[in-house]
Structure formats: C-alpha cells, structure tokens
Amino acid sequence: MRITVLGASGGTGSKIVELARGAGHDVTAIVRTRNGRDTVADVMDPDSIGPHVAGADAVVSAIGPRAALAPTSVQTDSTRSVVLAMKAHGARRLVVVSNSGMVTDGDDPFTRYLVKPVLRRVLRHPWGDMARMEDVVRASGLEWTIVRPPQLTNGPRTDAYRTAVGTNVRGGMRVSRADLAALVVRCLADPGTVRQAISVAN
Fold first, then answer.
1. Per residue in 107-129, pLDDT tens?
2. What stretches pass through the bilayer (predicted)?
3. Domains along the sequence of the chain with CATH
4. What is the value of pTM for the model shown?
5. Distances in Å between the alpha carbon of 101 and those of 34, 87, 173?
C-alpha cells in the first residue's frame, strides 16, 4: 500500500512511519523542515502537498498543535488543505489523529463533572481546533477514519490496547504512541473503520 504521512516528524507521526514501513508499505513521510531523509512540503498549501498524495492508497494526518495552550487553527487549516489536495488528485482514504479528551460521553461522574470541565477550559484552544478539524473530515466526502487517543505516552508497543467506536474507551486515560500508531496502520486497510470515530486506550 502507498501511504502518505503528514506530521511525520512528530512523536506519533514518526511511529506511524516506522510501523508502516516495517509492515512493508511504501511510505512518503511529509515534514516541515528539511532533514535529508523525508519529504518537505507545506501542509497549508494544497498545491505543495498535492504531488505527494497523488496515487496514494491512504493519507494519514498526525499533525498536532505547535503550542499546547495558545489559540490555534493548525489542525483545521492543515486538514482542509489535505482534503482539497486529495480531492484534486483522486485520493480517497484519510485517517486523522484527534483526541478523546474533548469527547464527553459515559465517563464516570468524577471525570465527567469535575475533570473534563476543567480540562475543557484549560485546553479550549487545541480541543476547539480538533473539533473543527473533525467537522472538516466528516464533511469531506472522503473515506475517513478519526482516531481519538487520550493522553499519549512514550511507552512500548503492547498491542493490548482497547478500542471503542463512537464513544470513549471506558476508563481509558492513556495510550502509548506506539500502540496508537499500530491502530492507525491497522485502520488503513480495514473497510470497517471507514466513516467511524474510534477511541483507543491501554
């Protein structure tokens, strides 16, 4: 499978690239800054990334906010650019990494009524950007999957992660970047994940 990964220099993106290549996929890793190894492109410019999504069987966006608490539209704007480039070049499969923390569902009362309201205020800018990004993905008409992890760790790949479709993983507070990457790579070829939001946690 030919896969294009945006945000490939980040903690999650680099794991996705590593695992996808290890599984035998042909991966184009898109980064912002030249490093002599990966492909440099401006993710905010559909014309810049267009040639790198052309012919791709799947595109992955692991782009995250550049400042944790500051106002941002990085994920919304970059995803809008990716969608335009994919449509222009006939690419159809898109997997994006979002966040499960902004989703309020059947969490325990402590988390639902105390923890998440505080986090929602503190992280209102990045979480708001992610929510708008998800809206762009859903409206794209592409074969999309949204993957929602909780707090990310640098722990090892265990393949013991849990998933939930359309809701959060009960009691799921953390997941390793390696396990998140494993799920993303698995989703790429799984038609059952198309047009689904999937939460993951260890």
1. 556 565 555 665 666 666 777 89
2. none
3. 2-201 (3.40.50.720)
4. 0.91
5. 33, 30, 9
